[in-house]
Amino acid sequence: MKDMPEFSGVTYVKQPSRSAAGDNAPVEELVAQILAAVRKDGDAAVRAYSRQFDKADLEMFEVSDAERHAALEALDPQSRADTEFAIANVRAFAQAQLSTIQPLEVEPLPGVHMGHRVIPVQRVGCYVPGGRYPLLSAPVMTIVPAKVAGVDEVVACLPPNAHPAMIAGCHLSGADRIFRIGGAQAIAAMAFGTETVPAVDKIVGPGNAFVNEAKRQVFGPIGIDQLAGPSEIFILADETGDAAMIATDLLAQAEHDVRTRVGLITTHEPLARAVLAEMDRQLADLSTAETAGAAWRDYGEIALCADEAAMIAYSDHIAAEHLQVHTADAREFATRLRNYGSLFIGELASVVYSDKCSGTNHTLPTMAAGRYTGGLWVGTYVKIATHQWLTEEGVRHVAPPAARQSANEGLEGHRRAAQLRLDRLSER
């Protein structure tokens, strides 16, 4: 591929033929039209777009209590048990994370008190993608941390044609309200509010290109978690890597979507060649080969690195959404990595476990966003809001430099506000 970066000490056993970054459909104009229509016409516009895009003509968007319980009853016992297992693990990890976010009160100068509070977002909208399969883990990952964080109301939107099990998943995860609305119109409804859908303060959750673009366009007065592209997995391996296991894990992620980006970064050429052959061998009898094979053909890569330093530098440049470490001392090696969405240390730690039920969140940064942010977590649903209060002694410390700085900047109103309190103290 022409726009592949050149790195010292890195050659390619297989290069991707296409760029996921450059293959986004030109959806900006259509999404803008959808947002404007929903903002203007509310439920009527949502209903029209649901008919147009989802072939669904629903009298009521909101899922009733009776429908919730019917979906729950229809869920087979093992699927329910597995979903509840995932919920328990995600909840436990989110609770542990929340315990590390503490309110603060300090007095850096005598009489100058400042700090912060940890305040849950009041109302959050969770977009739950429908996809080709009922992905029961999807609502767990967005709704459960919100409830742990203390969000007052969690609104879930999922496509009208989503599998009924997804309604059960939203219910079990703790959604306060569930709506059968998909696509950009769902983002618009949650951002602006309609006659039936309440406006939210923040929207989270992955979706297709239209959902992503809608989130981008409403961002500002409405918060979002991130802009997610197609899924990604890279595996770092040395000569100890197991070719069959590496290929299995790459294909497990590749079956998500034909645009999934999958890759191996290794220092060992025999392993690189073995994985290349193993991918073809496993695709021959993989039931999802039509999707996984297309992803591997178009976006798959195997990078051969001269040494560990080159391997780490290239990995940090890629900043993969999911990054697995299959090296002789994986835990030590992992401490030298900087950019990734979520890290899976050692060959026993598969992305699939996190995708489904182990407890870490599977909503993660893609398209190199791991260089500057992590994934969805309980902290996504709280605000760290600062405050201060001063005694008279505190005013005497900060008013003079504040007044002088304001005067130097030519901001007379600022100078007066800083000086007024000091003058009042002097008059007493």
UniProtKB/TrEMBL annotation:
GO terms under biological process: L-histidine biosynthetic process
Listed GO MF terms: histidinol dehydrogenase activity; metal ion binding; NAD binding
Protein name as catalogued: Histidinol dehydrogenase homolog
Cofactor(s) required, per the database record: Zn(2+)
Record keywords: Metal-binding, NAD, Oxidoreductase, Zinc
Taxonomy, superkingdom: Bacteria
Cofactor, how bound (note): Binds 1 zinc ion per subunit.
GO cellular component: cytosol
A Pfam entry, by short name: Histidinol_dh
Organism: Paracoccus siganidrum
Active site: E321, H322
Binding site for substrate: S231, Q253, H256, H322, D355, E409, H414
InterPro entries named among the record's database cross-references: Ald_DH/histidinol_DH (IPR016161), Histidinol_DH_CS (IPR001692), Histidinol_DH_monofunct (IPR022695), Hstdl_DH (IPR012131)
Residues engaged in binding NAD(+): Y127, Q185, N208
Membership in a protein family: Belongs to the histidinol dehydrogenase family.
Ranges for region Disordered: 1-24
PROSITE patterns: HISOL_DEHYDROGENASE (PS00611)
Protein residues bound to Zn(2+): Q253, H256, D355, H414
PANTHER family cross-referenced by the UniProt entry: HISTIDINOL DEHYDROGENASE, HISTIDINOL DEHYDROGENASE HDH
